[in-house]
Amino acid sequence: MMDAVMDRIPLESELVSFMREYESANNSHDIERVVPFIAEDANYWFSDGSYRGIEEIRSAINKTFTTILDEVYEVRDLEWPVLTTGVAVCRYRFAWTGVVEGQPRSGQGRGTNVIVRRDGVWMMLHEHLSS
């Protein structure tokens, strides 16, 4: 049992780094930095709708970047209910601040992501954000 715990630590560290890099890419507000984290066949569920495939997801994220100016997005309290060498599921809380229609705004909610390893690279297969 101790080996399973010890094996989990480097894997969790690797995936936490992936999530931090994903968070940073989103905070760049540059869709070209975000897209490499997302699988071509991903499915994202946001409060305003569901998006299937990289082009729909790209469009939805770009819409957020143009709607919320100067957005700062933060992922907190990461938990890993599923953690294997090929698939991981994380749940977390998120918060954001920014400017919408000239006014300061903020929000928070919960997220769940399914992350898969493809050709040795971690990628988002599913993201579900809700406020």
Notes on the structure:
With 131 residues, this protein is of the alpha+beta class. It has one domain (2-130): Nuclear Transport Factor 2, Chain: A (Roll). 34% of the residues lie in helices and 52% in strands. The protein contains 3 helices and 6 strands, in the order ααββαββββ. It has helices spanning 2-27, 31-34, 54-67; strands at residues 38-46, 49-52, 69-83, 87-100, 103-118, 121-130. It has a 6-stranded mixed sheet with strand order 2-1-6-5-4-3, with helices on one face. The longest helix has 26 residues, at 2-27. The chain is globular, with a radius of gyration of 15 Å. It starts with a helix and ends with a strand. The mean pLDDT is 93.
Write the layout of secondary structure elements.
Blueprint: H1 2-27, H2 31-34, E1 38-46, E2 49-52, H3 54-67, E3 69-83, E4 87-100, E5 103-118, E6 121-130
Parallel strand pairs: 1-6
Antiparallel strand pairs: 1-2, 3-4, 4-5, 5-6
Task: Give a short overview.
Helix content is 34%, strand content 52%.
Number of strands: 6
- Beta fraction: over 45%
State the share of residues found in helices, binned by percent: 25-40%
Structural class designation: alpha+beta
Tell me the CATH topology. Nuclear Transport Factor 2, Chain: A
Low-confidence regions: none
**CATH class placement:** Alpha Beta
Shape descriptor: globular
| Number of H/I helices | 3
What's the pLDDT, averaged over the residues? 93
Radius of gyration: 15 Å
Structural domains: how many: 1
Strand order of the largest sheet: 2-1-6-5-4-3
Level-2 CATH architecture: Roll
What letter string, H or E per element, gives the SSE order? HHEEHEEEE
Q: Characterize the main sheet.
A: 6 strands, mixed
**Kindly, what is the distance between the CA atoms of the first and last residues, rounded to a whole number of angstroms?**
37 Å
